Amino acid sequence: MAGTGNPAPRQPRNPAQRPTPPARPSGSAPAPLRKPPQVLMIKKEDEVAPEPPLAPAAPGPSVAPSAASGQVAAPVRPPSPPAEDGDRFDLEGIEGLTMADLLGPAPDRRGGSARSAGRGPAASEAAPGEPPRQARTVDDFDFDEEAFLAALDENAPVGTTGEVVQGVVIGMESDGVYVDIGGKAPGFMPKSECGLGVITNLKERFPKGLPIEVLVTREQNADGMVTISARALALRQSWEKVRQLEKEGKVVQVKVNGFNRGGVTCDLEGLRGFIPRSQLNEGENHEALVGQTLGVAFLEVNAETRKLVLSEKRAATAARFATLEVGQLVEGQVVSIKPYGFFVDLGGVSGLLHQSSITGGALRDLREAFQQGEHLKALITAVDPARGRIALNTALLEGPPGELLIAKDIVMAEAEDRAHRARSLLRQQEQDAG
């Protein structure tokens, strides 16, 4: 078959027919035998850490020929020990040097090698022919402390969460109102936070330029704008007012606007109140109370859980508390005797005549003074409408201490006249205490 190139000459099969090599000149050395090329294997550890020279080998062969390849195997060298820091670095040469000495001189603005002013001896060095330079301190620079503090105040963030701020309405959109509160960006009040109840017309409710007091509900964002609320502030003020009414034991008028299986609901100072059926005078037909106005007192006021529980039945007690005051002479009936005193019914409310307030004499048994069901007159020394407590005192009606035990009828008969003297004593005690 014909090929594309020059065919190689075919070797004769008979060894006698192979061409004889050219004869070498007489007297010349025989040609050395050619060995096959060898590949030298270099390990990575040999490149990183050069091996130390081998120690003289002991007498005898240190290498053994390879039976397979006929080559001489590489000698086996012991592992070299790790180098110490003292062998790698000259530690004695850098002892006592500072970091500035190690870094060397730094070029200054004029191309010299002195380091910056105030950082070493080179601060006072100067070029040849020039007077020595003096290092400048912070006091040598122009610094206005008042201007610096004013700049801080000007750029300080305005409005933290829970803070009440004053502002002026400067604009509005369909979803809220913009109020200038003194920051680098106006505050934004969403439409739902513009007040209690439903607001249909923002322009009429918040005309431009209207002064307004709001509560910060979210601190400023990346643009410097804070979120404010008039509704949250109104709710806070309502809870504070309701707590004060509860503390004073006031009776308030509310209008029933709904009912459920457990009672009726009402509105008080913008807050949703609840009157249980058990606290209604007509609890059996509470659905018919919708639209009516009731006088109620407070059972529970909790702003954290938003619970406002009212009572119509307790309103009568609260109304009675409203007629009582410290220093007033009242008449009641002993309804209960306890180890610590008497409970006295004062017409819908109970007062406590403590054993320490019965008489100024020695009292071995409470029944030496009064019996259950007996009527008595006493002075009011403390009134706590929120806790429903009234403190009574008969010892102030005595002349000499213990008079109540030996002449109780005279003390009770002259109680009105003796009460005037007792009131003066109570006022004097209040002034000394306050």
Automatic annotation (TrEMBL):
Q: Which InterPro entries match?
A: NA-bd_OB-fold, Ribos_protein_bS1-like, Ribosomal_protein_S1-like, S1_domain
Q: Which Pfam families does the annotation name? A: S1 (PF00575)
Q: Where is the composition biased (Low complexity)?
A: 1-17, 60-75, 113-128
Domain (S1 motif): residue spans on this chain: 162-231, 249-313, 327-395
Keywords annotated in UniProt: Ribonucleoprotein, Ribosomal protein
Annotated region described as Disordered, given as residue ranges: 1-136
Protein name (record): S1 RNA-binding domain-containing protein
